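During data preparation, a discrete fold description was generated, and the record follows.
___
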Amino acid sequence: MAEPWTPSLEMVADHIPTRTRPIEPPGETRYLNTFTSETTPTDVQAQRRIEDAVVTVLAAVGGVVPAAPMFLSILAREAAALRAAADIEIAYPDRDADVAVYEQLNELANAKLERLVQAINDQGHGTSGSSLLPVWSMPEPPWWGDYLL
């Protein structure tokens, strides 16, 4: 089941528009601003990268992105879109500069994911409504605990 915040092909393409050029005719410079069967990668290949990126985001946040507040879903969608764009860029390199683009997108994706985790912690959400950070506690000492033995 797809998450409601799963990025669309167009959202991922916004980060890597040069990947949306059609392969026919050769040398085409027009951008489609989405992935289709005429682009490299195809829409099916790009969708698989998006699904992998969603799983990566879910794994980082403990399996759940709370629906409220809404900005958490927006952060999750953007983190997944950047992760998918970076993964597409490194999976289909045409030139050396694609590696540099990947490194930039990877850095942005990691920063956005860290921000999402921090925002979820700040809101007190996470698995079972608790924070993603560990919470330590100790039992109350017994009545005789403060006496010298």
